[in-house]
Structure to design on (241 residues):
């Protein structure tokens, strides 16, 4: 999707001095530390992060709070396949969003691949980021609780439970971040689930996803306050978390 000057680096590769910009980080969350260490500090402003989960505390701790972030709502079944955009019956314009200094360059790149991308300001991006975090945390947890059923089954068969969990996590997350989600979050997230209905459920990268909400519950308990995520806590406990 790039202009033809891209350089693909794999883990362990030396970072070239003349690497083009932006630097798009396409790796698992647990590999981020190594990636940052391999990129010269004077190029950190060119980094673009596309990982799922709550990256903000990690980014802030490394002086990367202003780095470009991309919320990906598209999928590639396997290497070489055409990307499938995450457009839904509620958001036919697409849900993929980007924020940061390289937003326009990233949006143009995706457009070249036929993928929609909205350029947002930071407050709007935080709302969108929280909404996707709620989606992946709630749908995966409910799915695993019911034997690892697909995302589509979670939306279709366990909608009431999932809607309640979405509302709970959205409320707790919004309070923690100081943002407010737009009305209709459940409808948007349910529609996205329908668009990727065959996707399997699993609790992955726990500390970046459900672990963030678990920490909110732990902090509340330590302060003698009510658990902001009681259903989430109960479901995690039932799975041994």
């Amino acid at each position: 999707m790039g202009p033809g000057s891209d350089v693909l680096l794999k883990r362990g590769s030396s970072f070239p001095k003349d690497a083009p910009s932006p630097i798009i980080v396409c790796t698992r969350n647990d590999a981020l530390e190594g990636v940052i260490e391999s990129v010269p500090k004077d190029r950190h402003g060119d980094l673009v992060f596309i990982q799922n989960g709550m990256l903000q505390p990690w980014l802030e701790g490394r002086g990367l709070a202003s780095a470009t972030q991309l919320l990906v709502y598209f999928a590639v079944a396997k290497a070489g396949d055409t990307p499938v955009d995450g457009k839904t019956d509620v958001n036919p314009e697409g849900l993929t969003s980007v924020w940061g200094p390289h937003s326009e360059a990233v949006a143009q790149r995706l457009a070249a691949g036929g993928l929609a991308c909205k350029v947002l300001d930071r407050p709007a991006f935080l709302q969108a980021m929280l909404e996707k975090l709620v989606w992946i945390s709630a749908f995966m947890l409910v799915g695993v609780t019911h034997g690892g059923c697909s995302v589509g089954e979670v939306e279709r068969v366990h909608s009431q439970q999932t809607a309640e969990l979405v509302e709970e996590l959205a409320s707790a997350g919004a309070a923690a971040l100081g943002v407010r989600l737009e009305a209709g979050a459940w409808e948007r997230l349910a529609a996205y689930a329908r668009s990727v209905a065959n996707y399997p459920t699993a609790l992955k990268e726990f500390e970046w996803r459900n672990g963030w909400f678990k920490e909110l519950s732990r902090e509340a308990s330590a302060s003698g306050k009510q658990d902001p995520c009681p259903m989430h806590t109960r479901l995690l406990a039932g799975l041994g978390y």
Summary: The first helix runs from residue 32 to 38. The mean pLDDT is 94. The chain has nine helices and seven strands.
